[in-house]
Amino acid sequence: MQKSEFTQAEEQMIQREFEALLEDYAHTPHRQKVELITHAFNFANQAHYGVRRLSGEPYILHPIAVARICVREIGLGSTSICSALLHDVVEDTDYSVEDIRGLFGDKIAQIVDGLTKISGGVFGDQASEQAENFRKLLLTISDDIRVVLIKIADRLHNMRTLGAQPKDKQYKIAGETQYIYAPLAHRLGLFPIKTELEDLSFKYEHPETWQEINEKLANVKEHQLASFEHFAEPIRERLTSMGYHYTLKARIKSVYSIWKKMMKQQCAFEDVYDLLAVRIIFTPNESMSEKDQCWMIYSAITEIYRPHPERIRDWISTPKANGYEALHVTVMGKDGQWIEVQIRTDRMNEIAERGYAAHWKYKTGESDDSELDKWLREIKEILAHPDKDAMEFLGTFKLNLFAQEVFVFTPKGEIKTMPLGSTALDFAFMLHSELGEHCIGAKVNHALVPLSYRLKGGDQIEILTSNSQHPQKEWMDMVTTAKAKNSLQQYFRREERRYMKHGERLVEDAIKIDPELSANHDTVLARLLNYYQMTQPSELYAEVGQGAIRLDNIREIVFPRRGWKSYIPFLRSDKGVKELKSEGVKEPAASNDKDSPDAQPAEKPKKKVPHAVVLTDDELNKKFVLSQCCHPIPGDEVLGYMDEEGLMHIHKIDCPEANLLKTSYGKRIYSATWNTHRVQSFVETIELKGIDKFGVFIHVLQTITTDFHINMRAINISSEDGIFKGTMEVYVYDRKELDDLLKAIRKIDDIKEVKRVTGES
Predict the structure, then answer these.
(1) Same domain (yes/no): 503, 459
(2) Using CA atoms, how far apart are residues 596 and 571, in angstroms rounded to an integer?
(3) Do 688 and 647 have their domain in common?
(4) N or C: lower Cβ tally within 10 Å for the chain?
């Protein structure tokens, strides 16, 4: 950070921003504590005086902006505003948490302390630090969830000002935001913030694609808003005649959600038809329930427009896990376009916009136990037994962030919410970990199903158990929920400790029973590890404990008669050397024997690599390795990841593995650009589907070979009921050549779908 005196204009700007914060606060229903907030601002302003951000602006503008997000966009009160203003003081200045406690009390000090512990992003440089720092972030959910909410506000402002950071930092921060913060905001019900975080992450990871879609969206927005007015007019008349106070809003899809749809459906921007949604927010009459009135409005709308029978979503009877409530219906507009209508009360809308803070505000008693409360309890349970491995811990928790749900029933008719894709085994572990461990199957709708059965909405499930049943390793591939995976990992760790303890006892007994082995205990153990190609005694103990390794041939392993190299472990004991010589084994010369136990390999010089790398023809797959997980080719947007050996791996920016690397190893991420000259070709697989008419496939082959002069490596085509589908492996030089080819094939009559398969993300 830079440091210099502020100009008078900058000081006036700081004061204006703080007054705007107070103005935002004045429009909230919170008890006004302006004096406390002013005290926190003056303290933070003095502590950060003269400090500037990378953009050059005064640093204090950042905590003010975070505080404004807390009050305007999340709906938090004075304690959170003060904590947001002070959130970087302990981290960046000489003041301590105790100083904050003395001036502002225990609660604000506790929140600032929580924010300080997780400052600088979620992850450190080492795997253990990553898991620990991430755990600190999540543990604050049980201490005070406001820490997480303020951290999300902090991340949102950092994303809004990310342009000042260098490219490699942009990748790291955007990747971390996309991987953790956006799903976390969604799970806490902060839908507008989640949408903006996704959009900003996409903007910095795919700037050209973002710009292209954004410009196209701007061109059609006026037409979409005109369609909204035309569509909304009869709805307004009906709602007014029903006597409701209401607001009708048009919601245009975000750039990121449009891109996701384009990728999923392999279509162009022009083929995304559901850009517009309509939101009805009304004040309910006290004489009827909110649910009944939502259905009355639904009935009124479906009298005007024809509803889509398969696109009705009732999130009122069964709210989403993040507390979201609304009634969704998709209807056919007068111009033949499907439009989604979302029906909400004022209360439902506030929960949808402000998430957890609003959800908590509307709680009336201990019985108000929402899916969000249940989720928070589940998180605390996972945190009580965290995985030691950072990447596994991150993956386990990530499962709990993405929460498309299905609603299922117990045999007694109790409704349960499960993540989409859950299996019968997941359901067993959700009910109780012991039930899951002894599960042998399930009955779904009174029919017997296997453990791997995937639950569908409305299923009624009965779990079948047996005391003789115990978890198997393959169960890890059957379960999808964080709770089930965590429970299984705990079980396998317990079993591994039991096997290790048993195995250690067996190994020690086998050594002690033979005086010659017992006298050379450490070298015997080293020889066993070398023989079984292991590095840790714990590995050996576990294998012995499970019966995978037997110890009845231990002498033959330790005393083989095969030459000097077989006895290397014994060179560390005088007794061992004498014994070898007595057997007639000649001692090798001591000079420079690479097999000597004391010989050390020459340390490789560390490579110096700039923060941006250029990919050239002669260095591809030599200095730079193209990753097989996403198969990038010239023209794809890519980044580099340097492994521990100093080798640079090139990934597509939106590759799932790259997202995890950006999140976890930010300092090893490098921006990368292509500088190839069409020297090297790459094999790409394309998939196509169409109407099986005479000559259509010949036309495809002519387009590839004659029009584009592209060679092919393999073709696989099949036809059924008048539809053909297949894959072709083609040699291309770069992304542009591939895209041009796909566009040309799409133009062929009777070709309905064409997409790139290799490297899809």
Answers:
(1) no
(2) 9
(3) no
(4) N
- CA distance between the termini of the chain: 37
Q: What is the pLDDT of residues 731-745, one digit of tens each?
A: 988 888 898 999 999
Encoding tokens for residue 168?
Answer: 């490699």
In a domain, 396, yes or no: no
- Asked if residue 366 belongs to a domain, the reply is no
CA proximity to 67, closest of 93, 28, 99 = 28
| Number of domains within the chain | 6
Pairing of strands 624-626, 648-652: parallel
What does the alpha-carbon distance between residue 32 and residue 22 come to, in Å, rounded to a whole number? 10
C-alpha count within 13 angstroms, C-beta hemisphere, residue 519? 9
Q: Are 152 and 196 in contact (CB under 8 A)?
A: no
Q: Residue-wise over 112-137: b if at least 16 C-beta within 10 A, else e? A: bbbbbbbeebbbbeebeebbbbbbeb
Mean pLDDT of 7-19: 92
pLDDT of residue 62: 94
Residue 690 parent element (H or E): strand 682-691
Domain shared by 520 and 439, yes or no: no
Give CA–CA dist 682/660, Å, rounded.
26
Q: Which of 563, 610, 614, 608 is nearest to 585 (CA)?
A: 563
- Catalytically annotated residues: 91-92
With respect to residue 336, please indicate whether it lies within any of the assigned structural domains.
Answer: yes
Residue 695 lies in a domain: yes
User: What is the rounded average pLDDT of the residues 71-75?
Assistant: 90
> 196 and 213 in one domain?
no
The answer on 271 and 230 residing in a single domain is: yes
* Residue 141: pLDDT band with limits 50, 70, 90: low
State how far the Cα of 296 lies from the Cα of 4, in Å rounded to an integer: 62
Q: In the structure encoding, which two tokens stand for residue 454, read together?
A: 């995937």
Kindly provide the residue ranges of all beta strands, DSSP E only, lying in 621-668, ordered along the sequence.
Answer: 624-626, 638-642, 648-652
